[in-house]
């Protein structure tokens, strides 16, 4: 599963709105401990030309022991270019006028600020920093913003649109998060060039056109102090973490398919005492694969190496017998290639993983011939999670194994069943997680560009991992699946739901 959430570690609403007397502005008020955040623009309340504004400040754990940067260092989230980061703020219902058809700006804050301990969002009676005038406070006194209302970088900036006004905010801020991870370096990068990094001071959120001669009163979001676990501000990291191991679904090269479709991928999983570990001699570098036919009983590789289809990408230049593979993640390596069926095609092929004369592992696979008439575009599936438990703990990451077969499977039966149903390998599947008490999709289907809930598969079928820390303890949840139907180019959600409970 390619999803990780980082809850805000500080947030606040700052405003220059008038207090109830319509004389004094609340520029020194603080609302850092409130359970909601508020953005508004009020025009003409005090006088025909008066303007009142409210902005939101939110900070996230980018550095530190538990942070985005640490998770990248530890390999929990991928390198830059392979992961997207989304700012997510969740709508808080209220009885006041709700603006429609407007945009908000998300901008990087350019200096440090204090959250504060204020609560009063009605009368603005709690004073302290941060506020509209001041960023922070110390023993030496208040530290003012350079510009009232907060200091922000000019770039990058992001736009969120609200048509009905009730929408949650979800904005791709990947560029900014990557700059935060890089950090500030005024002397330039290691190569002497400029560093595009930024110090993390969080983001500011405000109405796009604050000078308009109209009101946009008022949009509220849940703050980090909210009692609602799934409504707190987060940065959500999403990436495609699926492992697509074709060992159980490898086809010979065919004129029925394109060159890309004829490429299949095999994986090597290097486990030492049950844990995935990098191969010392390889690390994160290249590994090589040679394919052999089998002995008479197909118990071991034998004979000369099998020649691969030379596509110019996956075969070593000048050597059609050696495939270049590479590093995937800790302890996992892969190689992609195509095989052409001979007059007497292989029933079993052996893949030998090596570097030079050093062999690391030998495995096998059974290539098949591609037959276009064998494909049923209207397949329906029967499924089950074979290792599902009744309950899980919040501090564990669980792997779920999915058994799938065709719904219309009809075995040959004589006196007793003579066939065991095959576990189908479905190459395009996705999952979602729903809280059962209110049917809230706490992890929706990730079937877009990030593909962060796509199922992995190997020779044993489909599977996925779920970090239980994403779920609130004390509740029951359900897992549902969707599969991509290439014939209609859409996802079909299945009604089956697999239930479990999360405990602390």
**Beta-strand segment tally:** 32
Shape: elongated
What is the oligomer described by this structure? single chain
Please bin the fraction of helical residues. under 10%
Task: Count structural domains.
Answer: 3
Overall average pLDDT: 89
Q: Largest sheet at a glance?
A: 7 strands, antiparallel
Q: Regions with pLDDT < 50 over 5+ consecutive residues?
A: 186-194, 310-317
Cα-atom Rg, whole angstroms? 28 Å
Proportion in β-strands: 35-45%
Instruction: Decide which structural class fits the backbone.
Output: mainly beta
Note the gap between the termini. 21 Å
Number of helices: 2
Which SSEs are present, and which pair or pack?
Elements: E1 3-7, E2 10-15, E3 36-43, E4 51-59, H1 68-73, E5 84-89, E6 102-109, E7 134-138, E8 141-144, E9 152-162, E10 169-172, H2 174-182, E11 203-207, E12 216-222, E13 234-238, E14 264-269, E15 271-272, E16 275-276, E17 287-294, E18 301-305, E19 323-329, E20 332-337, E21 349-355, E22 358-365, E23 381-385, E24 391-393, E25 397-406, E26 429-435, E27 440-443, E28 456-458, E29 461-467, E30 475-485, E31 490-493, E32 498-503
Parallel strand pairs: 24-32
Antiparallel strand pairs: 1-13, 2-4, 3-4, 3-12, 4-11, 5-10, 5-13, 6-9, 6-11, 7-8, 14-20, 15-16, 17-18, 17-19, 17-21, 19-20, 21-22, 23-25, 25-29, 26-27, 26-30, 28-29, 30-31, 30-32
């Amino acid at each position: 599963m390619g999803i990780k959430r980082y809850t805000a570690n500080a947030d606040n609403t700052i405003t220059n709105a008038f207090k109830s007397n319509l004389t004094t502005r609340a520029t020194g008020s603080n609302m850092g401990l409130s359970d909601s955040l508020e953005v508004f623009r009020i025009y003409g309340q005090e006088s025909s030309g008066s303007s009142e504004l409210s902005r939101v400040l939110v900070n996230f754990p980018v550095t530190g022991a538990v942070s985005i940067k640490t998770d990248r260092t530890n390999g929990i989230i991928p390198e830059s270019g392979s992961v997207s980061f989304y700012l997510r703020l969740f709508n808080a219902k209220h009885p006041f006028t709700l603006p429609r058809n407007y945009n908000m700006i998300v901008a990087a804050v350019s200096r440090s600020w204090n959250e504060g301990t204020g609560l009063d969002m009605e009368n603005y009676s709690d004073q302290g920093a941060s506020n509209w005038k001041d960023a922070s406070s110390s023993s030496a006194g208040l530290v003012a913003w350079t510009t009232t209302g907060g200091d922000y970088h000019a770039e990058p900036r992001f736009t969120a649109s609200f048509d009905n006004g009730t929408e949650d905010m979800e904005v791709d801020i990947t560029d900014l998060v990557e700059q935060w991870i890089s950090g500030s370096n005024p002397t330039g990068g290691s190569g002497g060039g400029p560093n595009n990094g930024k110090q993390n001071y969080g983001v500011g959120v405000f109405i796009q056109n604050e000078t308009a001669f109209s009101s946009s009163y008022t949009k509220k979001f849940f703050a980090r102090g909210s009692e609602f676990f799934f409504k707190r501000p987060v940065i959500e990291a999403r990436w495609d973490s699926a492992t697509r191991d074709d060992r159980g679904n490898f086809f010979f090269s065919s004129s029925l398919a394109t060159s890309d479709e004829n490429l299949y991928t095999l994986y090597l999983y290097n486990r030492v005492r049950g844990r995935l570990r990098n191969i010392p001699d390889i690390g994160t570098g290249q590994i090589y694969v040679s394919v052999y036919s089998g002995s008479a009983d197909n118990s071991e590789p034998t004979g000369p190496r099998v020649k691969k289809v030379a596509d110019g990408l996956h075969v070593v230049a000048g050597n059609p017998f050696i495939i270049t593979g590479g590093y995937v993640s800790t302890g996992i390596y892969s190689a992609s290639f195509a095989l052409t069926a001979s007059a007497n095609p292989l029933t079993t092929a052996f893949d030998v993983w090596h570097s030079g004369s050093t062999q690391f592992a030998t495995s096998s696979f059974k290539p098949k011939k591609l037959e276009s008439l064998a494909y049923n575009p209207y397949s329906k599936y029967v499924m089950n999670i074979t290792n599902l438990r009744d309950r899980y703990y919040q501090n564990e990451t669980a792997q779920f194994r999915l058994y799938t077969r065709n719904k219309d499977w009809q075995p040959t039966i004589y006196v007793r069943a003579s066939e065991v149903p095959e576990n189908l390998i479905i190459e395009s599947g996705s999952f979602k997680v729903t809280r059962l008490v209110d049917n809230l999709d706490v992890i929706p289907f990730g079937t877009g560009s990030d593909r962060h809930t796509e199922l992995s598969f190997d020779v044993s079928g489909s599977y996925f991992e779920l970090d239980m820390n994403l779920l609130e303890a004390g509740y029951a949840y359900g897992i549902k699946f969707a599969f991509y139907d290439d014939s209609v180019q859409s996802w079909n959600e299945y009604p089956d739901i697999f239930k479990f409970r999360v405990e602390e």
